[in-house]
Please model this.
Amino acid sequence: MTDNDTPLPEQAVEAAPDPHRPDALLECLLVVARAHGCVLTRDAATAGLPLNDHRLTPSLFERAAQRAGLASRIARRPLARLNPDLFPVVLVLEEEQACVLLGWDDNGDARVITPDLGDAEVCIARAELEARYAGFALLARPKFRFDARTPEVGDVAHRHWFWGAINDNRPLYRDVLLAALMINLFAVALPMFTMNVYDRVVPNNAIETLWMLAIGVSIVMVADLVMRTMRGYFIDLAGNRVDVKLSAYIMERVLGLQMEHRPVSAGSFAANLRSFETVRDFITSATVNAFVDLPFALIFVAVIGWIAWPMVLPIIVGVIIVLLYAMSVQSRMHELAETTYRAGALRNATLVESLVGLEAVKSLGCEGHMQRKWEHSASFLARVSAQLRLLSSSTTNGAMWVQQTVNVAVVVLGVYLIGDGELSMGGLIACSMLSSRALAPIGQVAGLLTQYHNASTALSSLNDILSRPVERPDEANFVSRQSFSGRIEFKDVCFAYPGQEVLALRNVSLRIEPGEKVAVLGRVGSGKTTLHKLILGLFRPTEGAVLIDGIDQRQLDPAELRRHVGYVPQDVVLFYGSLRDNLTIASR
Model:
């Protein structure tokens, strides 16, 4: 998104059908990176990104710039408003083009670098550039980073992957709070209208006053409808933004995991990733509305106190009862939610592993064993889920019972106050209506406790997944190589697969010169495939080092290295699609 929240048209730089045409945005990014002294290659910039026909789009530019340590954003502004201190900047041009604006010369012409001309700087008349300019500029500046000489002092709060995304949408949530304030203020209008009708209009037969009050409350009801619609729109918009951003982030982290830290079971891992849907659903309209309305219940309590302060007492007692019961079941509910989560992951693991190894299951005749594991997991999950639902329904039903009881208590107390002359008939009706509104958010929040614990458990699981080391961490400073000669050297390499005590390789030393043809022969399990995986950097040596062109492989960007290595795995995996799709998948 742009700095003024205007969507950027992706078609401005969509890929042209000519495969030999340079990627305009990528070439411009490389120019900007070199201008700021940042090392970046094409492979490093685009590794793992969902390119559009092998080319960057404006929405991917920021993610690619991060690979070079650049902070980037999209700005929609005219050329005259571009700050010279931000140069060089990338300008999105018409006809799927882009250029790097370096500045202005003494004649007012633009000094630019275009991808078609390499790194050559050319001058373009300002009027010509403005005619081709699409109105969007991509700003990029180096990030400031501390090094080992300046360690962190005390507890430093780092950006959380989930809460940081929520914080990025705080303007929308601010608007949600403002809309909620207006909605709850408007909710006071109907009880006050009813009170005035009973206390003033009916005794005096004031028809004109009745119509004035009716028109006024009708206007408020229309405004309430508008506010509710806007609040729902803002919540859904913020939720969609968070969903899209975090889904991309989670998938990128999963694909970038170091093989040493990959999960043991693909099925349970997939279930853990799918739990993001639980977290996503928790920040949707119903949940956010309930929590946002909760503090505004004080407005209704204050109005009731203004009408007749003794009428507040039943509401306070009801709130205390609901809160005490909700707090008493928190521990058990959290335990059941975590057990349900783990049982669901185990059942999903059984399903996925059975499907992946279906040929082996049939060959070994172990269908009954897998069926027994599935039914045992399913029955346990059903039993625990039923307990959780029962506990959740008891909270919801209890809150509803308290709300109804409080309403009865308000009416009974109001009758006594009317007898003492401290409350009118209209005031009693208004207090009854307001008491229901005051307790409604508390009852809704009590009913959402199960969703809260499910989301909390899912978030903890995702935290564990996303905290695992990745191949290309943000703070990494890899040695950049445009090409490799092909010299491979193992120096006293020892390696054991994760979770294994027996070494797959022990004190292996060898050297393969560029152009040499070497065949590695051996029996099954002797480590031939392990050598290939270490050369590719899929795994790292437990001891020793693997050198590529004399450079420790751990200092090389994995994407650049693998781009220059031809590899046929021992176990061929076919993804969904045609044979052509599978053969060309690496070039997509």
In short: The first strand starts at residue 70 and ends at 76. Residues 407 and 432 are 6 Å apart (CA to CA). The longest helix spans residues 367-419.
